[in-house]
């Protein structure tokens, strides 16, 4: 029997006094990909940011368990260290920070000690898996990246960090059909390499959800699922 990764019960959330999540209920188990669709403003990204512990999102009711532990009691960095990953719609640029070095530090924080030599070998393996050239990781994080390159960088992070649960928030946003297919194939390769990883795939484009062929699809409307 597959282990349950996440269980959300009657989650209610306010932002600046406005109720945006209104009793969200769902769960996800190991190796499961769940699509989460809905119109803009329905609460999808708010749910993702709440799960990651963004300070603007104030939980007013309900509970969230991550492998049986109280996720809401964890600081954002603790959530990441415990294996929760969020891919952003619009990733930030980090000028002067080489992407490879950024990944090295992030990996050590979440997985513990690893030598530079071991990490370089791992990074090369993941770049090869995704068809990404080595000079890509020598560039500053997202600086001067095209929209498609930023999304591929997010997928490379996913591949390297190997989280237990990945929340992919509109990874297809702003991409043309060809780039969307490339990103979808990249995610599928990562999932195949990590069969126990859970994925919450957020999008308002059903075509992208269909490309990913999730185990099930949930629909969010006005801060609720279902």
Shape: globular
Helix count equals 7
Give helix % range.
25-40%
C-alpha end-to-end distance: 25 Å
CATH homologous superfamily designation: P-loop containing nucleotide triphosphate hydrolases
Given as residue ranges, the uncertain stretches (5+ residues, pLDDT < 50) are: none
The run of helices and strands is EEEHEEHEEHHEHEHEHEE
Taking strands numbered 1, 2, ... along the chain, how are they ordered across the largest sheet? 6-9-10-3-11-12
What's the CATH class, please?
Alpha Beta
CATH architecture grouping: 3-Layer(aba) Sandwich
If you average the pLDDT, what whole number results?
92
Beta content comes to 25-35%
Fill in the CATH topology. Answer: Rossmann fold
Classify the secondary structure makeup into a structural class: alpha/beta
The radius of gyration is: 17 Å
Query: Main beta sheet: strand number and arrangement?
Result: 6 strands, mixed
Q: Count all strands and give the number.
A: 12
Number of domains: 1
């Amino acid at each position: 029997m597959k282990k349950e990764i996440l269980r959300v019960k009657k989650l209610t959330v306010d932002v600046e006094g406005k109720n945006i999540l209104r009793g969200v209920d769902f769960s996800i188990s190991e190796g499961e990909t769940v699509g989460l669709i809905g119109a803009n403003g329905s609460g999808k990204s708010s749910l993702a940011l709440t799960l990651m512990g963004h300070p603007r999102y104030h939980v007013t009711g309900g509970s969230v368990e991550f492998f049986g532990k109280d996720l809401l009691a964890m600081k954002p960095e603790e959530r990441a260290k415990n294996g929760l990953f969020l891919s952003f719609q619009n990733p930030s640029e980090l000028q002067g920070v080489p992407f490879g070095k950024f990944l090295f530090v992030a990996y050590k924080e979440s997985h513990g000690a690893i030598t530079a030599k071991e990490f370089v070998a791992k990074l090369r393996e993941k770049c090869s898996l995704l068809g990404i050239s080595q000079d890509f990781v020598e560039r500053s994080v997202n600086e001067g990246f095209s929209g498609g390159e930023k999304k591929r960088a997010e997928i490379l992070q996913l591949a390297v960090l190997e989280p237990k649960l990945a929340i992919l928030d509109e990874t297809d946003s702003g991409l043309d059909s060809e780039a969307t297919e490339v990103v979808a194939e990249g995610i599928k390769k990562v999932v195949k390499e990590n069969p126990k990883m859970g994925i919450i795939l957020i999008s308002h484009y059903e075509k992208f959800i269909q490309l990913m062929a999730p185990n099930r699809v949930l629909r969010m409307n006005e801060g609720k699922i279902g």
